[in-house]
Write a structure and sequence with these properties.
Length: 126
């Protein structure tokens, strides 16, 4: 039996999605993109602009416990990443192909923490 194989690295990429408020997420994207060696994977934003979703490796949801964020697991459903957003009412901020396969959860956790501290400091100056 012959099977076809795709050269698209996103074809079989299982992933989870960490969702955060847009303000914190945008700060985290900036932090990640400025960081040396800290790559950021695809990032979704909702059409209302309220949240950002970071693609992380499958299995991340099982141990994710960062307050103010949620991590949704694919639970073997194999969310596929392609140019079309996987969730209706969303669009890519950083699309697959323009980004790494996924953001490292430990790196994302640090960036989200730094972003939260920056936002808190900025808000306390008002």
């Amino acid at each position: 039996m012959e099977t076809s194989q795709s050269n698209d690295p996103y074809d079989d990429a299982g992933c989870d999605l960490v969702t955060v408020p847009a303000r914190q997420g945008l700060e985290a994207v900036d932090i990640l993109r400025r960081g040396v060696g800290e790559a950021v994977g695809p990032v979704l934003h909702d059409d209302g602009g309220d949240t950002l979703g970071f693609v992380v490796p499958a299995g991340t949801a099982a141990g994710w416990d960062l307050p103010g964020s949620t991590c949704t697991g694919t639970e073997g459903r194999g969310l596929r990443l392609n140019p079309e957003p996987p969730v209706e009412g969303s669009d890519w901020l950083l699309p697959p192909g323009d980004a790494e396969l996924a953001t490292d959860p430990a790196v994302l956790r640090r960036a989200l923490g730094e972003a939260a501290r920056m936002i808190e400091a900025a808000d306390s100056c008002r």
